């Protein structure tokens, strides 16, 4: 059965991606956004599936607004990066079927093939089965979990990881000449510079939300600082770095074999060649 999919926030970057995805899967799609003639209430009347593709505060508000209007045979889902509050709000606001969804990629992704998607169903339902089937049929790697496990895991995958990238950017900004650092960069460090650049060219409010509003985020950062201090003492003060790394290799090294091979494949293909800066070009001309 083909279901009509309505995307609230459907003119945004992720909303547009969702419309294209479901349309390519054969589903009629409709969009409600700030400047569309169709409203969220229109989608309630005309759609089988409603997706909240808006920031989490707006998603919570919309779930409370439209949730009571939905029928038990409709599906209400979202694409927020945190799940506990929005799934709880959707569940408490509607008789419709509820599934929290988190695509672990951005709107620049060309294909869902091989991409991770997390689903947090409140209970087994036709809507959940349909959503999972349509994602997997297009090649997505679907993982089913509960909102609490999702947010706890995202405290590492997103909150801690982004905090580490921001912290490294702050250190580079204070301690080194950023304009020349790429000339000293190894291939792995150039990848890290790319992550910094990517983060600093996106919405600051997104990263503030991912770090500050994850209920487990602060605990994970604190754990990182505690473990970092232990490792600093082991490496710098006790000269025990070799022992520590050898034990870590024995404990978890094998688990990261596939990730290492993927990274090696990226490095083997080579990064884009560096372009001489204007200062470097000037020095070359002067030396010649």
UniProtKB/TrEMBL annotation:
List the molecular function annotations (GO) for this entry: NAD+ binding; prephenate dehydrogenase (NAD+) activity; prephenate dehydrogenase (NADP+) activity
Q: Which residues form the Prephenate/arogenate dehydrogenase domain?
A: 3-266
Please list the GO biological process terms of this entry: tyrosine biosynthetic process
Which UniProt key words apply to this protein?
Answer: Oxidoreductase
Q: Which domain of life is it from?
A: Bacteria
Q: Which InterPro entries match?
A: 6-PGluconate_DH-like_C_sf, NAD(P)-bd_dom_sf, PDH_C, PDH_N, Preph/Arog_dehydrog, Prephen_DH
UniProt-listed Gene3D superfamilies: 6-phosphogluconate dehydrogenase C-terminal like domain, NAD(P)-binding Rossmann-like Domain
Residues of the signal peptide: none
Question: Which Pfam families does the UniProt record give?
Answer: PDH_C (PF20463), PDH_N (PF02153)
Q: Does the keyword Hydrolase apply?
A: no
State if Oxidoreductase is listed as a keyword.
Answer: yes
Q: What is this protein called?
A: Prephenate dehydrogenase/arogenate dehydrogenase family protein
């Amino acid at each position: 059965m083909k279901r009509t999919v309505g995307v609230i926030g459907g003119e945004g970057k992720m909303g547009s991606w969702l419309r294209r995805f479901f349309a390519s899967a054969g589903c009629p799609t409709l969009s409600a956004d700030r400047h569309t003639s169709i409203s969220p209430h229109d989608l309630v009347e005309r759609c089988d599936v409603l997706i909240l593709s808006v920031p989490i505060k707006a998603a919570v508000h919309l779930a409370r607004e439209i949730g009571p209007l939905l029928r038990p045979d409709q599906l209400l889902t979202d694409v927020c990066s945190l799940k506990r509050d929005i799934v709880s709000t959707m569940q408490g606001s509607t008789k419709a079927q509820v599934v929290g969804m988190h695509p672990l990629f951005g709107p620049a992704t060309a294909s869902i093939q091989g991409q991770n998607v997390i689903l947090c169903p409140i209970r087994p339902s036709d809507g959940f089965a349909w959503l999972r089937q349509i994602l997997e049929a297009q090649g997505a790697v679907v993982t089913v979990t509960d909102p609490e496990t999702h947010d706890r895991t995202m405290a590492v995958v997103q909150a801690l990881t982004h905090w580490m990238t921001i912290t490294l950017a702050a250190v580079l900004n204070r301690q080194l000449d950023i304009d020349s650092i790429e000339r000293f960069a190894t291939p792995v460090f150039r990848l890290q510079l790319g992550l910094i650049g990517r983060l600093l060219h996106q919405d600051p409010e997104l990263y503030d939300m991912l770090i500050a509003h994850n209920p487990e985020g602060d605990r994970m950062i604190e754990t990182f600082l505690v473990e970092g201090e232990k490792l600093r003492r082991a490496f710098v003060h006790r000269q025990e770095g070799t022992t520590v790394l050898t034990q870590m290799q024995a404990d978890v090294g094998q688990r990261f074999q596939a990730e290492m091979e993927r990274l090696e494949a990226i490095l083997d293909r080579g990064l884009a060649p560096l372009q001489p800066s204007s200062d470097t070009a000037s020095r070359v001309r002067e030396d010649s």
